[in-house]
Amino acid sequence: MLPSGYAVLDALPLSANGKLAADRLPPVEFAGVHVEPSTDRERALAAVWAEILGRPAAALSANDSFFSVGGNSLAAMKLVRLLQRDLGIELRLRDLYQNDTIIKLAQHVGAAEVAADREEGEL
C-alpha cells in the first residue's frame, strides 16, 4: 500500500498530552487529473459507486481507485451486490480489487461480456 499523497509540515500538531492531534492536520490537496466517465458503462458504474460511497457521481474521477476515494472491504461487497442487482453485472470481489478504477472495471466487464458471447456462439 502506497500513500496517494504527501504533505510537508513544519511541525505536527500535538495534543496537550503530546500525542498527534490528527483532527488538526491540514487537508492534503491532490493534483490528480479528473477524468469524466466517457462511456455509458462507465457512467453507470460511477452512479453505483456514488451510491455506495455517499458522494456525488460528478465528484468521482474515472481513474480514481475505489479504495482511495473511501471504499473499503464492506463497501466493495455492497458494490458487487448492487452491480449484480441493478446492472446485471456478474462480478467477483477479486475482480474489483484487480480492477479498482471505473475505467479498468468497465474494460473488465466488457471483456467478460465478449468472452461470454463467444462461448454462447460455440455451443
Automatic annotation (TrEMBL):
<dbReference type="InterPro" id="IPR006162">
    <property type="entry name" value="Ppantetheine_attach_site"/>
</dbReference>
<keyword id="KW-0596">Phosphopantetheine</keyword>
<feature type="domain" description="Carrier">
    <location>
        <begin position="36"/>
        <end position="113"/>
    </location>
</feature>
<dbReference type="InterPro" id="IPR036736">
    <property type="entry name" value="ACP-like_sf"/>
</dbReference>
<protein>
    <submittedName>
        <fullName>Phosphopantetheine-binding protein</fullName>
    </submittedName>
</protein>
<keyword id="KW-0597">Phosphoprotein</keyword>
<dbReference type="Pfam" id="PF00550">
    <property type="entry name" value="PP-binding"/>
</dbReference>
<dbReference type="InterPro" id="IPR020806">
    <property type="entry name" value="PKS_PP-bd"/>
</dbReference>
<dbReference type="InterPro" id="IPR009081">
    <property type="entry name" value="PP-bd_ACP"/>
</dbReference>
